[in-house]
Amino acid sequence: FHCTLEAPTAQWVRKEEDRCTYLNKGQFYGITLEYRPNPTELPHDGHAVLTNVRSVVMLVFREAKNPDDEINAWDFWQSRQPNNKQRIIDVETNNLSESGISEIQDVSHNAVAVFWNPLENPALLSLAIQCLSTDFSLQKGVKG
């Protein structure tokens, strides 16, 4: 399986850091999920046996955190939202049939599950992130 985020990668990289893509809060970006079969892993008849798969798209912190610290950071973000139903990922659900997606389910405030048939078409997903890195800190301008 192959996943592509349709957003430009930052041109400037700090020493000893990997390349990074910055996303604007509330702007929708495309994600393409596609199946690229490995010929050595196909059954003897040469055809894949997939009908419907579930892919989870999740927003996570760039640097690994202690699981308790991560839960506390998400809870802190949630506590500062206008209502408790606010999600950190918004997904465009219009024209699902044209996008190769049969269903989208909310998994949690920072994850969605996408159901699609990889043998028919790639899945084309449009999503927006509803937070800033500074939303996770009490100090103004400090990344959380």
What is the fold's blueprint, element by element?
Layout (H helix, E strand, L loop, with lengths): L1 E5 L21 E7 L18 E6 L8 H13 L9 E3 L9 E8 L2 E6 L6 E7 L15
Antiparallel strand pairs: 1-2, 2-7, 3-6, 4-7, 5-6
Main attributes of the structure:
about 140 residues, mainly beta, four-stranded antiparallel beta sheet, three-stranded antiparallel beta sheet, 7 strands, about 30% strand
Number of helices: 1
**Separation of termini?**
31 Å
Total strand segments: 7
| Average of per-residue pLDDT values | 82
Whole-number radius of gyration?
Answer: 18 Å
Largest sheet: 4 strands, antiparallel
Structural class: mainly beta
Global shape: globular
Lateral arrangement of strands in the main beta sheet: 1-2-7-4
Helix content: under 10%
Low-confidence stretches: none
Q: Hey, roughly how much beta strand do the residues contain?
A: 25-35%
The run of helices and strands is EEEHEEEE
Describe, in short, the structure shown.
With 144 residues, the chain is mainly beta. It has one helix at residues 67-79; strands spanning 2-6, 28-34, 53-58, 89-91, 101-108, 111-116, 123-129. Helix content is 9%, strand content 29%.
Please characterize this protein's 3D structure.
This protein is mainly β and 144 residues long. It has one helix at residues 67-79, and strands at 2-6, 28-34, 53-58, 89-91, 101-108, 111-116, 123-129. The strands form two sheets. It has a four-stranded antiparallel sheet, with no helix packed on it. Strands 3-6-5 form a three-stranded antiparallel sheet, with no helix packed on it. The radius of gyration is 18 Å and the shape is globular. The relative contact order is 0.23. The mean pLDDT is 82.
